[in-house]
Amino acid sequence: MPISPRLSTILIGLLLCGNLARANSLTEPPADLLSGRGSVAVFYPNVSEPFRSIFSKIIEGIEERAKGRIKSYIIDSNKIDHTELNSQLKRHDTKVVIALGRVGIKAATALERDISVIVGGVVSTSDIDQQTVSGISLNPDPAVLLQKLKLLQPDVRRVFVVYNPQSNEAVIKRAREVGKEQNIEIVAYEARNIADAARAYSSVFSNADKTHDALWLPSDTTTVEESTLLPLILKQSWDSSLPFFSSSLIHVKRGALFALYPNNLELGRNLGNSALGVLAGDIRKKGIQPLRAVHIAVNLRTAGHLGLHISAQQQRGFDAVFPEQ
Fold this sequence. Notes:
Layout: H1 5-24, E1 39-45, H2 51-65, E2 70-75, H3 82-91, E3 94-100, H4 101-108, E4 116-120, E5 134-140, H5 142-152, E6 158-163, H6 165-181, E7 185-190, H7 194-207, E8 213-217, H8 229-240, E9 244-246, H9 249-254, E10 258-262, H10 264-279, E11 287-291, E12 294-299, H11 300-305, H12 312-315, E13 320-322
Parallel strand pairs: 1-2, 1-3, 3-4, 4-5, 5-11, 6-7, 6-8, 8-9, 9-10, 12-13
Antiparallel strand pairs: 10-12
């Protein structure tokens, strides 16, 4: 039975789509093509909830990418036997270790030199030797933060931030670089203790313009101290209608306009891809990269207080909306 020209076109289109889909599925090296090139170990800490679920989700993403090549090791911070650990890794022909959290990184410090280390699941990376490891931090990339800010506050021109240089110097440097690209000036105040931070915030609220300025709360236990500084920031930002955004989901619940927080499953996939790349012989750039696998949350009450209208269609683009509907 002859096939009409229209049906032929449709069939050819479907065939091409199928081939394209198969080609896209090979953009990362499949695990079965890496047989004989070693295995991947994951070190993660022995912690309770909610942190256990976070690490479990990251590991789920790693396993999704590196199917059948992963062996996980739960690490107790007080019982790290490096000799036994190295022996186990050698028995399993381990070529790459993904070290999650501070405890995982500590366990990876005494590994044999032929094992590559990929770091994940940590916020501050200032004390990690970035000449010897690669990885992804839990700190959202400032470039993504500023992009989301511009979507919600198109008129923003300056972003104030109070930070401890001992933990966040690299993050602020990155923010200044991407800020220039997005025509946003980063006005950064250094604060090495809570008293310094309180004075810095007082200066911010005295000089900020609610129309063109915003305040950024980074992941910083010194300058975003929860019991004394955060209530002060919440009150003054509300009273002055100065929008602030954050790297913490908790802050959105308490009044931040929006926050970026880790997409742990996708983070795990990215770490798994990196490990497969190492097994395949890729030369990886050393250093810890900021997190781009993120979710976004928004506070509609705060948006309304600032005179911002977020449509129902826009809301569907957020991963979490507060107050909860």
